[in-house]
Design brief:
Elements: E1 5-6, E2 11-13, E3 22-31, E4 34-43, E5 46-48, H1 53-73, E6 93-95, H2 96-107, H3 111-130, H4 134-137, H5 139-145, H6 149-158, E7 166-167, E8 170-171, H7 179-182, H8 210-222, E9 228-230, H9 234-238, E10 249-251, H10 252-264
Antiparallel strand pairs: 1-3, 2-3, 3-4, 5-10, 6-9, 7-8
Bound molecules: iron/sulfur cluster.
């Protein structure tokens, strides 16, 4: 892996009067055998980790575009297509910072849209409860029983409970979807994703995962064991009114570096 470093040549970028001032940050990411030269605009003033999420989403798009290019150069074809929501029945680990951002976004929606979403989340929780999964997802229970992630994830998938944001087999929050959703691509036939116990699913290896860096930061902030929540718990989590992003606050480049340095140390290479 190539080293990762935030360049020291950040520069003010001219902005219109209403836009928050930004600076350009350049760095290089090692991506397996390759490397990715990154140039992003981040707020120059003080921000929280949650507030720079759009920058991380854009960086994730760049990482995945490079990963896809490398995968296709090796002769593989990505099977994922718009309108295929087979993978959206998996348990989605959502970093607490992304939960905060999604919560803020939901609160801006018209009340009837919020109510509709709340109903969808309730229906998913009821289906999980009826399938005996709700108790297993409880963090306390997970810690006490030391349940392994893989069998839990598989049992969740077999319940066929769709993500509450999935509408007509498409993601209704595509532009702001979680980092981990952005990082999931397969090269095996799409229909294999429906019954992964019977068919072999070949995922695209992602050399650096921003989602995992965010989980690690979540563990640091919470002093807990995982730093994420199952996405399906989002509405319940919102009721606590916590703002974990406030714990990682500083000038934009410094906050970005808190994430990037976790990619550099390899903390982000593992799974959930
Ligand atoms: S957030 Fe969107 S992409 Fe992620 S599981 Fe839900 S519907 Fe699918």
């Amino acid at each position: 892996m190539y080293g990762t470093q935030v360049a020291d040549r950040t520069q003010p970028i001219g902005q219109d009067e209403n836009a928050a001032p930004t600076v350009q940050v350049d760095f290089t990411l090692g991506l397996g055998e390759g490397r990715l030269d990154v140039s992003v605009l981040v707020p120059s003033g003080r921000v929280t980790l949650t507030q720079i999420l759009p920058v991380l989403q854009s960086l994730s798009s760049d990482i995945m575009a490079s990963t896809v290019e490398q995968t296709e150069a090796e002769g593989h074809r990505i099977s994922c297509r718009a309108g295929c929501g087979a993978c959206c029945r998996q348990m989605v680990p959502l970093s607490i910072f992304e939960a905060e951002a999604l919560g803020d976004w939901i609160r801006t929606l018209p009340q009837e849209r919020q109510d509709e979403l709340a109903r969808r989340f309730d229906a998913a929780l009821i289906a999980l409860r009826d399938g005996g999964m709700l108790e297993r997802l409880n963090p306390k229970s997970l810690a006490e029983k030391n349940e392994q992630a893989a069998p839990l994830a598989l049992d969740y998938l077999m319940l066929r409970v769709a993500c509450p944001f999935l509408v007509d087999e498409s993601c209704s929050i595509h532009a702001i979807r979680p980092l981990i959703c952005r990082e999931y691509l397969v090269t095996s036939p799409a229909e294999f994703c429906v019954f992964p116990t019977r068919d072999k699913v070949t995922g695209v290896p992602v050399p650096v995962k921003l989602s995992s860096a965010m989980f690690k930061l979540g563990v640091d902030v919470e002093g807990g064991v995982r730093g994420w929540i199952p996405l399906v718990f989002l509405f319940a989590w919102m009721k606590a009114g916590v703002r974990p992003g406030d714990a990682i606050r500083g000038e934009g480049p410094a906050v970005l570096y808190e994430v990037v340095k976790r990619l550099a140390t390899g903390d982000a290479a593992g799974g959930v």
